[in-house]
Each structure stands twice: as structure tokens, then as C-alpha cells.
Amino acid sequence: MDIVHLADHKEVIPTLAQWFYQEWAYLYPDRTLLDVERLIGEKEPTQQKFPSR
Fold first, then answer.
1. CA 53 – CA 39 distance, rounded (Å)
2. What angle do CA 21, 49, 18 make, to 5 degrees?
3. Cα angle, residue 5 at apex, residues 51 and 21 outer, rounded to 5°
4. What is the dihedral of CA 17, 23, 28, 34, to 10 degrees?
5. Residues of 6-31 as b/e, b for ≥16 C-beta within 10 angstroms?
6. Within 2-52, where are the H helices?
7. Inter-residue contact 3 to 37 (CB < 8 Å)
8. What is the per-residue pLDDT for 8?
9. Cα pseudo-dihedral 27, 8, 47, 30, rounded to 10
10. Which of 7, 18, 35, 39 is the Cys-Cys partner for 31 at CB 3.0 to 4.6 Å?
11. In angstroms, rounded to a whole number, what is the distance separating the alpha carbons of residues 8 and 50?
């Protein structure tokens, strides 16, 4: 099993964002679906270090 960063597989981000938005949007009323997509796709500073193979 490979552990990868979502930011490196942007093709799945719209689906994940939609799932998140459908389930949890009521908790974040000021966030749009596009906001969720952007947040999922952001690279974290630690991404340069982990995961490793």
C-alpha cells in the first residue's frame, strides 16, 4: 500500500470535496464547495518530508 498526498492526486479532490460538503457543510456555513476543494488541495509544509518509501 502506498500512502500519498491528496494534493498530488488532484483528480480525486472534487469527489472528496463533494462528499465532505454533503455531510458536513452545515458545520461550516460560510464555506462553499470551492472552498472545500481548495482546502483539500493545499499542500502542507510537511509534505516535503512525509510520506517516504
1. 26
2. 10
3. 140
4. 20
5. eeeeeeebeeebeebbeeeeeeeeee
6. 13-24, 33-41
7. no
8. 78
9. -20
10. 35
11. 13
